[in-house]
Description:
By secondary structure, this protein is an all-alpha fold. 89% of the residues lie in helices and 0% in strands. The protein has one domain (21-210). The chain has helices at residues 2-18, 20-42, 46-66, 71-92, 98-124, 126-163, 168-207.
Amino acid sequence: MKRSKNTYLExxxxxFLENKKTYILLLIFLLIGIVLGVFFINNSDEAQKNxxxxxxxNFVTTLKNNNSIDRNELLKVSxxxxxxxxxxxxxxxxxxxxxxxxxxxxxxxxxxxxxTMAGAIVALGTGKGVIFCLSSILFQNIILVPALFLIxxxxxxxxxxxxxxxxxxxxxxxxxxHSLLSVxxxxxxxxxxxxxVYISTNLLTFITKYI
Length: 211
């Protein structure tokens, strides 16, 4: 059992070391997206800030007063969103033109995270805003972002294989590998949805009582 765990860790470490530059580049794009999200909120006009603040405050008030969320509907929406994202990443990673789109996906994910964080801080203040973000977006993204990177790295490798005009057999093997890794990534996306609905939502419901 211990040897099995060590083998998995070795495989993960080997995968990271072989694609270290790509992982670092994806991380940079994610961080740029987060910075852009914060920048958009901080540099928006008062009307936009008030709109974001009103939305978040209304959401918090709803949780305080009702303390009820339709988790089944939320799960359906989250699963659909994440599965479609995984399929889209698999598809664009299987095309020559997919390489810039892969990095756009990561950039956009970072932008969403940064926008949410900055919006919560504007609406609730720094302390409460940080607590709101930690409870609402942290746990599912701990699972989702590495899975996103996994598929993105696999997509990048396949794109390069197609661009370099390797033999059809090599491209076929890369496509099979990419498809298997994408399935694993999508499974983690689904786990992220479950975490969002049954952990983050419950935690957020509890936290909002004290915000």
